[in-house]
Amino acid sequence: MVLKTPGELELMDEANRIVHLVLSGLEEKISPGVTTRLLDRYAEKLIREAGAVPAFLHYKGYPATLCTSINEVIVHGIPDETVLRDGDIIGIDCGVVYKGYYGDAARTYAVGKVSPAALRLMAVTKRALDLAVEEVRPNKRLSDIGHAVQAYVESEGFSVVRDFVGHGIGTALHEDPQVPNFGEAGRGPKLKPGLVIAIEPMVNAGNPAVMVDKDGWTARTADGSLSAHFEYSVAVTEDGARILGVGAA
After folding, report:
1. Nearest-angstrom CA–CA distance, 232 and 161
2. 249 within a domain of the structure (yes/no)
3. Side by side, which strands form the sheet with 202-204?
4. Which residues constitute the domain of residue 104?
5. Is 134 contained in some domain?
6. Which residue(s) pair with 190 in the sheet?
């Protein structure tokens, strides 16, 4: 685990501030009739205007600025000419690089009027993220985070994706440690001040099984059920969690 200095945390806070600026700006654009490619171009414009660069674009060959994951797509949906429809939900994952440091966050949005079941899935996933953040403080164990997510999500009748996990983040998009959204509490390394992790519950309305499209990126639920995704980059401080780009937890 790479522990960050106070100065590095400030740079990462600014990187994540830009990410959340983009995610908030996209909320005004998301509506029936809009293409995911338009959202992607708008996000890239905002990122570059803020003095950062897109973190995902060309990362391991990924072709876009955002991941735009609609309905049963869990993560890594590639922006294209797909048109959003009334009743869709869309998970948007955004990353930037600012002065050599990464920011990474995600939100799931409703498109027009969505079903009560979809709204509940989104609310449970966001609540799972908030509960995970509450576990972030010195001397807690890494697995306490995933246990909090799994226990809550399953108590609400949903399932947690196991094929993809959260991660450390800093001068690389993916650093150690991996941060699963499941598992027993009280295991793994202790959390230390200066550690920054991307916590990102991915929750399915059906079972947790995943299949990946032929493009090698788009991951969707094997049973066709809806999926939601929320993510924060979170720093461990002496006082607990600091949600980077947002403020104190």
Report:
1. 17
2. no
3. 159-160, 202-204, 227-229
4. 6-243
5. yes
6. 141
**Domains contained in the chain, number:** 1
Classify residue 164: in a domain, yes or no.
yes
Stated length of the chain: 249
Q: Is residue 248 part of a domain?
A: no
Encoding tokens for residue 119?
């709204």
CB 30 within 8 A of CB 40: no
Cα 123 from Cα 117, distance rounded (Å)? 10
In this structure, what CATH number is given to the domain that contains residue 230? 3.90.230.10
Q: Tell me the C-alpha distance between 224 and 90, whole Å.
A: 15
Cis upstream peptide for 177 (omega within 30°): yes
10-residue mean pLDDT series, the chain (249 residues): 96 98 96 98 98 97 98 98 98 98 98 98 98 97 98 98 98 97 96 98 98 98 98 97 81
By the 8 A CB rule, do 77 and 69 touch? yes
Q: What is the Cα 130 distance to its own chain's centre?
A: 12
Q: Are 157 and 206 in contact (CB under 8 A)?
A: no
